[in-house]
Amino acid sequence: MLSSILDQGSYLILSDFERQQQVLTLARSLIFEGVEKLNGPASRQELEQQGLSLLHNVLAAEQIGPLRDLVMPTLRPALLEMVCSIGRLLGIDDEFFVDDYTILRINFPYLVAKEASRSAENPGIGRVDESTRKQSVASKVVDPNYNPKAYHNNEPPAAWAHGAHRDTWTGHSRLGVNLWWAVDNVPEEASMVFYPGTLNADFEPDRRSLYLAEGYPLPKPVKMSLRKGEMLVFNPEVLHATHLNTTSVTRLAISARINPVRPRFSTSCFYAREFWHSSTNIEAGHFDRVLRFERNENLEPAIDRSVVPPKFPQLIELEADSHDNEWKRVCESVKIAEGGKLRVRFGNENVLLIRTSAKLHASQANCPHLGVALADGFHDEKQLFCPAHGLAFNLQSGLSSCTALRLRMYEVEERQGDIWMRATNRASVHVAA
Ligand code: FES
Ligand SMILES: [Fe+2]
Fold this sequence. Notes:
seven-stranded mixed β-sheet, 2 domains, eight-stranded antiparallel β-sheet
């Protein structure tokens, strides 16, 4: 099992494992208790009636951090034990390591989270042992290129979602195995997004976001729903992302990480997750013994990948006014093969032309969420997937599963071997996504 995850980049979903029900019950009851401590018994009662997936109805986004502070220290020993038993289930016989950094991922629906204040925590922020916290604060490293606020377009941190990445790009260890555990039912559009087959592909991160740089086309994303209690186990070097939570429910998951061997870090990231528990200590009940593997002493030379330059679809620049109704000739039809894309600078607007087997479509070229270039996203006959957070846009209408995020569409026609387009009828499309 372990080698297929590590060597082939596959993933598996565990539906039944040791300590699963006991720790799930503990995690859920700690969340209910935390809500009661923060907002009183009436809020707890309301949450018990409505279900945890409606947590955002009783908790403000600004209280996600305080709730984590209440839940994680008590949950930590039981969680470490459960993670350790999963390591054994995966077939690791010898001593292995469990990351001290664990995350209670609370992703409110995007439309709720985007109204939060700046002080509300990012869903991807974890918690560590108290001793680790003090040491990490003392040795914090800052990279001047890294600017997550700019990537997230200054949206409140509670609304942030991870773009496509490998975990070693963000300071995690080599040869890790990620555990991602559904504390409540997780619908597909609030889940993880995977790009199978990308384990050994040549991709580069953008140094400003540590997510995939522009110019690397992605394969079809795999999205998966999980039932309450199911555990996704995957190789974090396969490109993966967080789906923008376009549902009306809060996503609740806990993530942890195993390293079958002593953790080592990539030279490509400026910091490293240095604090770990050994399976020997966890199995002996020593949950507060944390080992430190200092980055500088545990670096591994970068994997020798050829540096592949980014590849962008052809760009055609047209003089145009997007407010008039005039048709403009773009280029010869043969410039876009079936399944291909072409970028057009239409006056001062960026447009993406996409050819399916049936027809040509023209849409705005950047995602209405954070402006990421859609040219790298996979498309099929009906949909274009954003390469950042997996959102699917209908190629006919531009609609997505989020009412606030819709692509502007352009009219496009082929006449006697040429492609023509114009920017009209923007409000007249009524096709369902
Ligand atoms: S940038 Fe987030 S879904 Fe496109
Ligand atoms: Fe990740």
